[in-house]
Amino acid sequence: MDTSPSALLRLFVPKLPFIAKTALWHSLWLSPTSSKWDLRTEITVRIIRSLLENPKPTPLSKQQRWSLKDPGIKGKMWISKVTLVNPEEEDTRDILIEAIYNMDDGKGTYTTPTTVPVEAEWTGYRANVRHDRPRLDLSEAQQYERLMAEVTSPVTILYLHGGAHFMMDPSSHRVPTSRLAHLTNGRCLSVRYRLAPQNPFPCALLDAFQAYLSLMYPPPGSFHDPVQASNIVFAGDSAGGNLSFALVQLILQINRSTTRKHLHFHGRLIDLPIPVPAGLAGNSSWMDICRCMPSVISNAQWDYLPPPMTNDAISRFPHDEIWPTDPPRGDVYCDLSMLCHPLVSPLAATDWAGSCPMWLGYGEEMLADEGKAVASLAAKQGVTVIWEQFEAMPHCFSMIFDQLEAGRRGFRDWANFCAAVAGDCARERATKLETKGTWFAAKTCKEINVDVSSLAVCSQEEVAERMRSTTAARMQGQEGEGKILPKL
After folding, report:
1. HSE-up of 137 (CA within 13 Å, CB side)?
2. Buried b vs exposed e over 93-103: b needs ≥16 C-beta within 10 Å?
3. Cβ atoms of 488 and 58 closer than 8 Å
């Protein structure tokens, strides 16, 4: 993303009157959120919201290009850029296609993806340097050696970035991934998965699956040694959380239904079942591409995400070189017939039995109800689930508001979970993990215990009906083509 002074000036100077008005209303306690937020939070959320509530949607290609501007590498991070070579065999793709079919009897429409090399960034924490210290002029292999010299734990986080499936990449998420590496004393492999709309479902999921197998069974030319599944944690924010949960669901489905005994991968025979990772940690995970749950409306006052729109003038993306697609489809990420598929919307999954422990962190945000439904169902099915929700906090707040105790606590707990389930002594610590739900009060972070199995605001039947009816409305053109994102 472009964070140069000139770009920031162009963005914020026109907002100065708006900022002044927001500050005045907050100071006079006239804002409906002033009792829950400090001034900085109020201004930040309202600015983001004003950008997202754009009456003239920006073309997808422009949004995508803006989000992919590399901010550079400096300061307290080690970055080693790698390419995970794709296998000559097509087993990874074929077993994914089998799982997709087995989960909906082939009712949905999608394009079979090709298997391609997957770019990624190894990310670690660089200690004892200033925040503006330039990156050393070293080869990528040497960067990796330096990174590993500071890693003291076997914790390996497979990180999948957010960005509504069509924006961002590992470069936009270097700060949070290096911070996770620091707090876990481990490392992150941040995946540059293929973006929609050019590469719709299941391209990104195939890339994530290939990255996981590549951690355990390194392709030729890899810098890393084989990593045990017991040392790997899937983590992601927003759309990356969606992919993380979908990837676990994919592994569970393969293990449930495949008749294969082996998987060919770079000339090896990998025995099945595929091991699940040590843990799954989602930050404000987007579980429902349909966006059908009650909190999408009821929690809007605490969030900056745009609600579903029915005004045709502002719920359609302008035509450009990447949209609409050929053939056209109704959603940026997938064909509308796939919205209710469990590998597209993990909210639709009905079986989490056998999953690794999960950590789900949310604010009082628009996506909260879908996270509650997944957490509640998984807990009822015997999965260890840690649920944390912070009052009055917006989407991905712990990655934005590190000046708040809620932001610091949310991020620290995210990292602590990763360290608890993977790495040294993890097995001993993981056996002590118990399902637990916590509500954190605004400002004070006072903890209130909640029953995870009772979190869901709708029954499974009601969730399924909501998803079906919302999909039907989308097919009739009554909803937008995806999240409407900023004009930048």
Report:
1. 0
2. bebbbbbbeeb
3. yes
Are 98 and 162 a contacting pair, CB within 8 Å? Answer: no
Q: What is the DSSP string of 154-171?
A: --EEEEE--STTTS--GG
Pair of tokens at residue 137: 């002029």
% of the chain beyond a pLDDT of 90? 79
Neighbouring residues of 269: CB distance < 8 A, sequence distance ≥ 6:
262, 263
Return the pLDDT at 224. 98
* Mean of pLDDT values over 98-110: 92
> Taken in order 320, 325, 328, 333, is the CA torsion positive or negative?
negative
The pLDDT score that the predictor gives to residue 486 is: 36
Tokens of 112: 């079979």
Cα(215)–Cα(303) distance, integer angstroms: 36
Verify cis geometry, omega within 30 degrees of 0, for the bond prior to 357: no
Contact 224, 211 (CB under 8 A): no
**Rounded Cα–Cα distance for residues 411 and 64 (Å):** 26
Contacts of 45 (CB under 8 A, 6+ apart): 33, 37, 303, 304, 394
Q: What is the mean pLDDT of residues 80-93?
A: 97
Gap between the Cα atoms of 232 and 135, Å rounded:
27
| pLDDT attached to residue 173 | 98
The phi, psi pair for 283, rounded to 5°, reads -105, 110
CB atoms within 10 A of CB 89: 15
Check: CB of residue 79 under 8 Å from CB of residue 136: no
Q: Is the CB of residue 377 less than 8 Å from the CB of residue 299?
A: no
CA torsion, ordered 15, 18, 20, 21, to nearest 10 deg: 180
Q: If you average pLDDT over residues 20-49, what whole number do you get?
A: 82
DSSP symbol at 353: T
Residue 17's pLDDT band, with cuts at 50, 70 and 90, is confident
What three-state secondary structure class fits 390? strand
Contact present, 201 and 333 (Cβ < 8 Å): yes
The pLDDT of residue 107 is: 87
Locate 77 and state its tokens: 């991070």
Q: Please provide the size of the chain in residues.
A: 488
> Which DSSP letter does residue 334 get?
S
